[in-house]
Amino acid sequence: MDSDQIPASTDQSSPRLSPRSVKNPASFGSKKTPFKAPPTNPEPKNSFLHLWELESKYLCALIGTCATIPEIRRLAHKSRIDNPDQYTDYHLHNIFVNAAHDGTRPGRLLEKLFRQKFKTSITRFKETHYSQYETLWESALQGGDLTGSYYVLITNKNTPSETRSKAVGDIHMLSHISGMACRADLRDLPRLRKENQRLIREIEHLNVKRTELIRSWEQKESELQKVLLNLKSQLRQQNCCKTQSAIDDQNNLIKIRKKNELLAQLVGDLRREKSQLRQEILQVKADHQKPEIEINSKKPPSIDTVCGHERETQDELTDEDKNLSSITDLNGKKVLYVGGRFRQAPHFRDLVEKLNGCLFFHDGGREDGDRRLDELLPQADVVVCPIDCISHSAIGRIKRECQKLNIRFLPVRRASLSTLGRALSHAYP
């Protein structure tokens, strides 16, 4: 066996690796440099002790607490220990405890690992006064960096002896608690294994059910997909039929509108003829009753004259109405009056016809519906709406329809003969 390699220890119960089992315990690396023990008389440059400067009673708990088994095994390979895989975890632990005590290569590598691993804890304790070390340790016990704090407290020269003793005792008791927990876990292990096997069987049973359900769902999904395709086909056919029906309806509507235009034109011509005949009859009666009136006078009656015959059923004319002496001629225009009461309709019609026009009456929705209003609107040249007999929403709708059909819209304040006369007089002077 080479002088750099450590043989397997046969006594695993000993806390330290016996120096007799190592031919050259000071040489573990490739460089065979003998280890020089640190001086004891001069004051150390820093406040931290090396592992080989610590008392032996601290090393076992320190290494067991601060180094994990994987870290110990990696360091064993790095230290070139002869076939470290042949050793148990406990045997490797003893080897590194002895190496840390003697200051050999595994101990030096272990200290280097601790200095890098616990760099944050070392800095935190350096920035804290030693009187606060116990507070830091209590914080570590409550869930902080326990291993790093323990390493710093053991290796720091400034650590008070009471705090170091407390840390050692806490770690000692924690190891006992951990051992009891492990023993409890080992005691419950057979029961947990049985429970695990039972759960595995239940999971397998559930997986079988899940597979069956997935197959059933896939079958139902396939059937629903077929139904969906059938419904889409039917919907396309219905849409085609509806489209053709809509085209036919549109063509029929165009034909009906053309017929309505022709009929409206004929009705307008007939009403103009009727108005002319009425004027001629009135003129003949006037000539018969008053021969002093000149035959050549053919002016239509004024607003004041026409409205004067209806004052017994309507509001009295104001002074403004009396001043409207201008003569109004509607020239056969069709007037649609929306709102008011049925008893007013004959008087409104007489007024409009005397002014050479034609009146359509709609009560605004009391009895006449929207359908009749839609039929009357395209036939009118002017629409008159009294705002006191019809809702604002209805007025807005009628106004929008008039804008679409390019029909003149005349809103008046109230439903009376005088307001109708003034509106027509202002609109068609």
Q: What order do the SSEs take from the amino end to the carboxyl end, as H and E?
A: HHHHHHHHHHEHEHEHEH
State the helicity in percent bands.
55-70%
Strand order of the largest sheet: 2-1-3-4
**Approximate shape:** elongated
The radius of gyration computed from the alpha-carbon positions, rounded to a whole number of angstroms, is 57 Å
Largest sheet: 4 strands, parallel
Sheet/helix structural class: mainly alpha
Q: Give the total of beta strands.
A: 4
Question: Which stretches of 5+ consecutive residues score pLDDT under 50?
Answer: 1-45, 291-326
What does it look like?
By secondary structure, the protein is mainly alpha-helical. Among the domains are: 19-187, no CATH class; 303-427, Rossmann fold, CATH 3.40.50.10700. It contains 14 helices and four strands. It has helices spanning 56-66, 69-78, 89-102, 105-117, 119-126, 133-141, 146-155, 161-289, 303-308, 319-323, 345-354, 370-376, 392-405, 417-427; strands at 334-338, 358-362, 382-386, 408-412. Strands 2-1-3-4 form a four-stranded parallel beta sheet, with helices on both faces. Strand 1 (334-338), helix 11 (345-354) and strand 2 form a beta-alpha-beta unit. The protein is elongated.
